[in-house]
Specification:
Length: about 600
């Protein structure tokens, strides 16, 4: 999704901005642009498509000591050079980058900008014109920006430069992420710390409604009433090597391979030497008497929630409901008397989930965010946070975050069940079992050649494919299908195996691939029956089964692990299936079309 970088106080602003934008590429975008300036000159350059297109347009004259850059993922107006940021005001004096969506842009336009002309069709261009409209009423830049913030409704992270003051970046945020990074003789702004890690690892978080004046030597934070705010900086716990591909052709493959290490890191972070789980006592006390847990998430995170439901209900006896964020916020179900909310979000910035958390906070219900990003919006705004410790996930297709989410939900369930004195939780040797999963994951990861061959046999030509399973195997089927469709563009669906015959079986034709997941003895027998049903209608079936239930004809056999943790293992070959299917079709594995890594608009 859209990304912002900016710097003031270094002579090579152009180079720093381009590098920063490249670090944000993984988030998904369709155009990019930058503005740089110094005392005497300024340049605005934009390009549709990849950052490479923008770099190709840069000449030695495009240089400066201050600048802002942007990657745009279209919301208002098509991907085009005209709609790419930065945008300029009517007189061209002000230059603005923006992440988010301005809800009242039409009203702003008709109220303040009746005589203005516009280059593109974006809400951002209206915002920068509004700031200038207030300057035309006699306000200085800061006061005009502030007044504009008071009339703009919606989500935003703004970076604004006035060409007549090339020593200041004006910054503000509401609901969209934005950080200020501190340097020695320079300062930076960015929507994601990763973008500016080469410059600094000290950052200051901003709170919704604040405005910040950033110069080379200082940052001044003000709240809406104009009061100065003092805030400590923090050191980003990120390593540049975490965000490099190394020898891997794609981030997705690197991240699939990292999963055993992530499982072990989760053990290190949540268990002591004796293998006992150590969790915040306040969190467990807040959860133990709750009568229902609501897990809120989108996409892969929601799929991890389904597996977590099974684990939590088994170990804690607390009923769990799973809800899609985009549905829950505007269609809230009847809640139980004592609900507890868990927000699952790799990025911690997903706007659909955030709008639910805002409502939950208004209702004063306790909440926990499970996220990969410390300090993210969902983490800051929930009552409690647990981190995934998965390391940055760059590929748009989520892999290690899914398995980390399930593992951390299992950590929570084990600790909560024990807190409630439940025997099933005490008897579950979680740390030992997760260690076995990590080793078993390694053996699957070593089967890349086999999986690549199976993909060539089953998925090279096909237009569509189905994953089927029951219980947890169904939950994994949903995730497996999402992975396949989002990067290979094969129309894939994950079905409850028994549900096929109630309609979907009509889609089975000669050669349709149907992949069955089998890790449970009872339901597995039924799934095998369902595979026979589709085979007799022409489907080409492929079975992923755990070793204890496997038949000699099964194509992928997985080590048997604890049934509560089986999803951690069965999902791995399906991630590799998606990876190889995409590779064989010649698509960009890490940057699928139309998708963004962090979806910061509703
Ligand atoms: C999955 O591969 C996708 N990237 C997507 O479904 C993702 O899981 C979803 O957008 C939620 O993101 P979040 O975990 O950062 O909130």
């Amino acid at each position: 999704m859209c990304g912002i970088v900016g710097i003031v106080g270094k002579p090579n602003a152009t180079e720093i901005i381009i590098k920063g934008l490249e670090k944000l590429e993984y988030r998904g975008y369709d155009s990019a642009g930058l503005f740089v300036a110094n005392d005497t000159t300024s340049s605005l350059v934009k390009a549709q498509g990849r950052i490479k297109n923008l770099s190709d347009k840069l000449t030695p004259e495009v240089s400066g000591t201050i600048g802002i850059g942007h990657t745009r993922w279209a919301t208002h107006g098509q991907p085009s050079e005209e709609n790419a940021h930065p945008h300029t005001s009517q007189s061209q004096r002000l230059v603005l980058v923006h992440n988010g969506v301005i809800e009242n842009f039409e009203e702003l336009k008709s109220t303040y900008l009746a005589a203005d002309t516009f280059i593109g069709e974006t809400d951002t261009e209206i915002a920068v014109h509004v700031v200038e409209a207030f300057m035309n009423q006699g306000l200085d830049t800061k006061a005009a920006f502030k007044k504009a913030l008071s009339v703009i409704r919606g989500s935003y992270a703004f970076g604004l430069i006035d060409k007549e003051d090339t020593e200041t970046i004006y910054v503000a945020k509401n609901k969209s992420p934005l950080l200020v990074g501190l340097g020695d003789g320079f300062n930076v702004i960015c929507s994601d710390a990763m973008a500016m890690l080469e410059q600094t690892n000290r950052f200051v978080e901003l709170v919704d409604g604040e405005m910040v004046i950033v110069t080379a030597d200082a940052i001044a934070i003000e709240d809406q009433e104009g009061h100065a705010i003092e805030r400590e900086s923090y050191e980003a716990q990120l390593d540049l090597t975490d965000i490099e591909k190394g020898t891997y052709p794609y981030y997705m493959l690197k991240e699939i391979d990292e999963q055993p290490a992530v499982m072990r890191r989760i053990i290190q972070n949540y268990a002591n030497q004796e293998g006992e789980i150590q969790l915040d006592a306040d969190l467990l006390n807040a959860m133990k008497d709750r009568d229902r847990i609501y897990i809120i998430g989108c996409g892969t995170s929601s799929h991890a929630g389904w597996v977590g439901k099974k684990i939590i209900e088994t170990l804690t006896n607390i009923p769990v409901e799973i809800h899609l964020s985009s549905e829950f916020g505007y269609n809230m179900p009847l809640l139980s008397e004592k609900p507890f909310f868990i927000f699952l979000s790799q990025s911690g910035e997903t706007a659909d989930s955030r709008q639910v958390l805002v409502k939950i906070n208004e209702l004063n219900y306790p909440s926990l965010t499970i996220t990969n990003v410390a300090g993210s919006t969902l983490s800051r705004e929930a009552t409690y946070t647990l981190l995934l410790h998965a390391g940055p996930e760059i590929a748009v297709a989520s892999t290690k975050a899914y398995t980390a989410q399930i593992a951390v939900l299992a950590v929570l369930a084990k600790a909560l069940g024990q807190q409630k004195g439940l025997a099933q939780a005490a008897d579950f040797a979680f740390v030992h079992e997760l260690g076995l999963v990590a080793t078993a994951m390694e053996s699957i990861i070593n089967e890349k050649d086999l999986i690549s061959e199976l993909v060539a046999e089953y998925l090279t030509e096909t237009r569509n494919a189905f994953y089927i399973g029951r219980g947890v195997d169904y939950y994994v089927s949903m995730e497996a299908a999402l992975k396949l469709k989002e990067i290979s563009y094969i129309q894939a669906e994950g079905f409850a195996a028994g549900e096929l015959k109630h309609g979907t079986i009509a889609l089975i034709e000669e050669g349709t691939p149907v992949l069955g997941i089998i890790t449970d003895e009872v339901t597995g027998a039924h799934t095998r029956g369902n595979l026979k049903e589709v085979e007799s209608r022409g489907a080409k079936t492929l079975v992923l089964a755990s070793a204890d239930l496997a038949k000699p004809t099964d194509q992928i056999v997985l080590p048997t692990v604890h049934p509560l943790l089986s999803a951690l293992l069965t999902v791995v070959p399906t991630q590799l299936v998606a990876y190889f299917a995409t590779l064989q079709r010649g698509y960009d594995v890490d940057k699928p079309r139309n998708l963004a890594k962090s979806v910061t608009v509703e």
